[in-house]
């Protein structure tokens, strides 16, 4: 999965952090310490971790994800992350190395 979306409510910036939906990579969710939960009144499941967003972002960076965008929507902060596959990362490195230095 090349994209990840995490969010938290502004008044809860110390956790919990929502890190995925029912279709998220279970291994990645386990690494983030997230549990799959369903809340009363919702017809969907979501993965949540008690870690604060900063800790989640750091963990995802260690896995090769980078923040593509961040937004505040109402009382919610949302970060979109992307993890290039190895071919994309190699192509990007080649492009960066080919740039003129002047």
Task: Detail the topology: elements first, then pairings.
Layout: E1 3-9, E2 17-21, H1 26-31, E3 35-37, E4 46-49, H2 53-62, E5 66-73, E6 76-82, H3 86-98
Antiparallel strand pairs: 1-6, 2-4, 3-4, 5-6
Q: In percent, how helical is the residue content?
A: 25-40%
Number of helices: 3
Mean pLDDT: 86
Shape: globular
Largest sheet: 3 strands, antiparallel
CATH-assigned homologous superfamily: GTP cyclohydrolase I feedback regulatory protein GFRP
Main sheet: strand order: 1-6-5
What this model shows, in words?
With 102 residues, the chain is an alpha+beta fold. The chain has one domain (3-98): GTP cyclohydrolase I feedback regulatory protein GFRP (Gtp Cyclohydrolase I Feedback Regulatory Protein, Chain: K, 2-Layer Sandwich), CATH 3.30.1410. Helices cover 28% and strands 33% of the residues. It contains 3 helices and 6 strands, in the order ββαββαββα. The protein has a 3-stranded antiparallel sheet, covered by helices on one side. A 3-stranded antiparallel sheet has the order 2-4-3, with no helix packed on it. β3 and β4 (46-49) form a beta hairpin. The longest helix has 13 residues, at 86-98. The chain is globular, with a radius of gyration of 16 Å. It starts with a strand and ends with a helix. The model has no long low-confidence stretch (mean pLDDT 86). GO terms for molecular function: GTP cyclohydrolase binding. It comes from Hypsibius exemplaris.
Care to give the gist of this entry?
With 102 residues, the protein is of the alpha+beta class. 28% of the residues lie in helices and 33% in strands. The strands form 2 sheets. Strands 1-6-5 form a 3-stranded antiparallel β-sheet, with helices on one face.
């Amino acid at each position: 999965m090349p994209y990840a979306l995490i969010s938290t409510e502004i008044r809860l910036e110390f956790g919990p952090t929502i890190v995925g939906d029912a279709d998220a990579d279970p291994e990645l969710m386990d690494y983030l310490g997230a549990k799959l939960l369903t809340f009363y009144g919702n017809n969907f499941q979501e993965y949540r971790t008690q870690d604060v967003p900063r800790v989640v972002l750091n963990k995802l960076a260690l896995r090769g994800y980078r923040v593509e965008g961040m937004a505040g929507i109402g009382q919610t902060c949302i970060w979109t992350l992307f993890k290039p596959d190895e071919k994309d990362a190699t192509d990007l490195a080649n492009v960066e190395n080919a740039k003129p230095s002047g």
